[in-house]
Specification:
Helix content: 40-55%
Distance between the termini: 21 Å
Number of helices: 6
Strand content: 15-25%
Length: 246
Amino acid sequence: MDRWQGRVAVVTGASSNTGAAIIRALVNHGLTVVAVARRDTRIQVRIQELVDELKESSGKLFPLKADITKEEDVQAAFRWVERNLGGVDVLVNNADISISTHVADGRMSEWKRMFDLNVIALGSCSREAIASMRARRLPDGQIINVNSMTIHRLSPFPLGSFVYCATKRAARVLTEGLRRELAATRSRIKVTCVSTSVSDPQLVEVVGWNEDVYLNKVFFHSKDIADTVIFVLSAPPSVQVNEVLL
């Protein structure tokens, strides 16, 4: 991890347990982390608690308010990083939402919320990060998309999760497509998909699911996912980690 010390990482979905664990790991390894989260009082309090916790760490943490489902917020966030920190070296697309809605009679507004965050926002953040990396002619650069094992199988959860599964499979196609596009230009920017099974319930913002869904489930700890992010970044410069399955 030595080559990443002092480098800049942007982490979306910063207020979730998984986002906080990833930020904690990166800051403790000496990175300067921009924690992106929505303009919500409860969320911002949680982010400030993380800032206070990590103030003695070897890295630095900068909270940044942005709704990444809005194009203007995404562009403004990455402009802030350029102006204040010089640009992005690592992007962790962790923001995610799951809403219980059906294929047969679901509300399209709920479909749209999931696709806007799980797919479109992932794409727009990746685009801005790559533009920053290319402009500075980085000899490396890393994008890590925190995804789901539902890209390989439909969710074992009750009916109502299939649209969510569709967003995660779309995100995987975009991840692999981006990797291939960059490889075709002989870019040294790497792209990795980290596919997790169920983590703690706050891995996603669960809307409309009864708590019984989570009873008797074995959850990954958020730290397990954070450790996987560090594993990917720790790979030698000559190694491309395409996907990690947890």
